[in-house]
Structure formats: structure tokens, C-alpha cells
Amino acid sequence: MVEDDVLLGRGLVAGFGQAGFAVDWVRDGDDAAAAWAVTKYDAVVLDLGLPGMDGLTLLRKRRAAGDKTPVLVLTARDTIADRVLGLDAGGDDYLVKPFDLEELLARVRALLRRAVGEAAPVLKNGRIALDPAARSVTLDGAPVAVSNREFAVLQSLLMNVGRVLNRRQLEEQLYGWDEDIDSNAVEVHIHNLRRKLFPDVIRTMRGVGYHIPVRP
């Protein structure tokens, strides 16, 4: 998230955190350029009026470099011309301040679905269904209680069904920059998910990572 307003930024970090997102927050365009160039993000929420490099310039540079990260432009610039500029610069969505947090979260979820080729709002695979908006998990139609971080691990694996994710990739779904990472956190969450769902819901490729196989 690139946002220079401290009060708004703190509120957004809290809101995203409550919705299960791990957020790296930077406050100016130059720091954002440095972070974005070396970190693979699932999505970027980008203000335009920034200290240092302007948001539009940053977006154009990342697109020119071939970066395909989904970007939601979040800004007070509200004219039609501004929206056109933001979208033509490479933005995937555009939301004007002031805004409703629930709408912002819904738009980010939609960007994430489209990025992995998912159209349906509920992720389904075999006996499991996960609803990101309701933050619910069901097994054979029955609700299963999971923690926020268990939910984040399961969602990441379901959005990449059949693809192996290593521990570092999963840790990035769980922690922001300012959070300490427990050395065995991913293993603990996967153990708990296997216990709550069924033993081979998540499979381990030793020395590589974890995956959920495609199930009818």
C-alpha cells in the first residue's frame, strides 16, 4: 500500500489486517519504487499524490518494466480525465477518496480473483469451499472454524490449486514488514488445517513446499 496520509494509512493497515491481508505500507513514491522492484506483491493499492515520485510516474515505470501486479488506484483525484489517466497508465481499478472500506476490500478481492483467472467469488475445490468476503470455510457444506492466519494459508493455496508454494511465499501472505515471523508458523497452520479439514487436504513436496491438488 502506497499512501502518504498517516492517519488514513494506519486505518487502512488495520482494516486490511482485520480482513486477513498482510500489508507492507510505504509513504512516498521513491520508497514504493524500491520496494515494488524487489518484492512480488499480490496487489498494490496506490495513491497518486505522493512525496517523491508521483503515483502515475511510478505506475508507468512498473508497467514499462513488465510488471503485471494488479493495481488499484486510490486517490482524491476525481475527474473523468484523472480516471482515464490512471487507468491508461496501467491501473486495473480506480477508487476515489473518500471511500467505504468494505468497497475497497471487495475491489481488492476482485483484483486478486482476476489475477489467478477466478471469476467466482467463492473458491471451491472438491469438498472445500472458501468465501473471502464472508471469511468462511466449509467442508461438505458444514462450517469449519479457522483462525485468520489459517484462513490466509488456505486461501493462498486454493487460489493456486495444483501449484506448489514454498514457505516464504506463504509467509508473505501472513506477515507484513513490521511483524516478527515465527520460524515454524506455516507448518503449524498447515497442521491445524489438516486436522480441521482432512489429512491430505494439503500435500507436502519435501524440500519444495506445499500444494492443494485439483479435486472435482
Automatic annotation (TrEMBL):
Subcellular locations according to the entry: Cytoplasm
CDD domains, sorted: REC_OmpR_PmrA-like (cd17624), trans_reg_C (cd00383)
Domain OmpR/PhoB-type: 120-214
SMART domains with a match to the protein in the record: REC (SM00448), Trans_reg_C (SM00862)
Modification sites for 4-aspartylphosphate: 47
Portion annotated as DNA-binding: 120-214
Lineage: superkingdom: Bacteria
Keywords: Cytoplasm, DNA-binding, Phosphoprotein, Transcription, Transcription regulation, Two-component regulatory system
Presence of keyword Transferase: no
PROSITE patterns, alphabetized: OMPR_PHOB (PS51755), RESPONSE_REGULATORY (PS50110)
Residue ranges constituting the Response regulatory domain according to the UniProt record: 1-112
Protein name in UniProt: Response regulator
